[in-house]
Amino acid sequence: MTVFAAVPSLGFGGGKSEGPKKPLRIGVIGAGWLGGTVGRCWVKAGHEVFFSTRHPEDLQPWVKPLGPRASFGMPKEAAEFGEILLLAVPYDTISDLVKSMRGQLQGKVLLDACNPSASNRSEIAREAMANGVAITTAKYFPGASVVRAFSAVDASSVEASFEGRGPTLGVPIAGDDASALQVATQLVRDAGCAPVVVGGLAQAVAFQRGGPGFRANTSEAKLRDLLGL
Questions:
Q1: How much is the pTM?
Q2: Torsion angle, CA of 179/101/99/141, rounded to 10 degrees?
Q3: pLDDT digits (tens, 9 = 90+) for 178-199
Q4: How distant, in Å, are the alpha carbons of 25, 78, 96, 194, 211 from that of 185?
Q5: DSSP character at residue 219
Q6: Adjacency order of strands within the sheet including 194-199
Q7: What are the tens digits of pLDDT across the range 65-103?
Q8: What is the DSSP letter of 44?
């Protein structure tokens, strides 16, 4: 298994520090349980976050109180807004989503938190489970630098880690682009968690559904033991 070296800090603050020196513009595509939770952590850490769903009016009650660094709208608007994107949608919607965002993702860092459900037998779900979810996502988003991140943890565990309730949560990440991995590493820290770099996209199978790192929701040290790092 390929293991990347430790990634240097970008100088941003995490959930337990004073906030980032240089706020990033992040588009959250799919502001449900996970996307909404991680995005809220980033807003509180000082980043500018655009939350989106196909029904953005449902987001107003909880996005507005977050203040001027938080906004909301449609997924295409989030893709236009963010220099970094968090993708947290049902896996079956990916192929249609790509068509609606054509031209908006080129050169951007895409954090992929999507998982095919255990009972899904759609063509794209079968492809993802056969070839690897990370590899499949990268195929459908060829212009973006894909990093598998926040896909193997529960939103409640992220929130608890950000708020300092219990041990710091280990979050496995994987990607083929070193600079994108650097960004993902720091954004995991900014969400109050500990990044665990597993390797390239091919190694992300270790923490997709069925892998030892999937839904482990444990500390960095225990996660490394589970993944053999």
A1: 0.90
A2: 0
A3: 999 999 999 999 999 999 999 9
A4: 16, 21, 28, 8, 21
A5: B
A6: 70-73, 48-52, 25-29, 84-87, 109-112, 145-148, 170-175, 194-199
A7: 999 999 999 999 999 999 999 999 999 999 888 888 877
A8: H
DSSP state string for 180-202: HHHHHHHHHHHTT-EEEEEESGG
| Position 42, amino acid | W
Token code pair at residue 205:
């199978």
The total of other beta-carbon atoms located within 10 Å of residue 55's CB is: 8
What are the structure tokens assigned to 13, written together? 């603050």
Torsion of CA 143, 131, 26, 120, to 10 degrees: 130
Residue 7 CB partners (closer than 8 Å, separation 6+): 178, 181, 182, 185, 186, 195, 197
Residue carrying the six token digits 């970094």 = 84
